[in-house]
Amino acid sequence: MEKNTDIELFEKLRKVAHRMRWMRHDHKRPEEDGPRHPDMHRMPPEGMMPEAHHGPRRLPRERILTILNEREEGIRQRELAEKLMINPSSISEAIDKLEADRYIERNVDPSDRRATLITLTEKGKARAYEVEDERAEAFSRFFANLNEEEKKTLSELLQKLLGNETDPE
Description:
By secondary structure, this protein is mainly alpha-helical. The protein contains six helices and two strands; from the N terminus they run H-H-H-H-E-E-H-H. The termini are close together.
């Protein structure tokens, strides 16, 4: 399913919000020198989201399903975590629950038998399509006050804010 403009804009806004959270907390990147307060966490590697100060970040199951729906051949857990901008170890519990609910399955990667690919089951695909439709409707309402030209301008402005980062996939 091809992403529409509203979904692309929302993904860019999410990235801007992520960046703004780091700016608000005045975190330093690991390569920066200088004293740090003992409670200050380092910035994660580019594209990775840290666990919140209050414990692990809750992962929306629906977001995982939509990402998996974009990859018919499956995806490795590490790559899925990167797309979610979290630490790979933080996703294990969510993956286990989705597997127990029969939304996903784990299969041996044919290109590397030591690796595992996560794929959607038919039940998972059906739910992923429902979620994508729900998201598209919600995003359409969210951006309803903007015409197509304004959406395009907003997208370009958000991309400027993100700098050299690539568009969301």
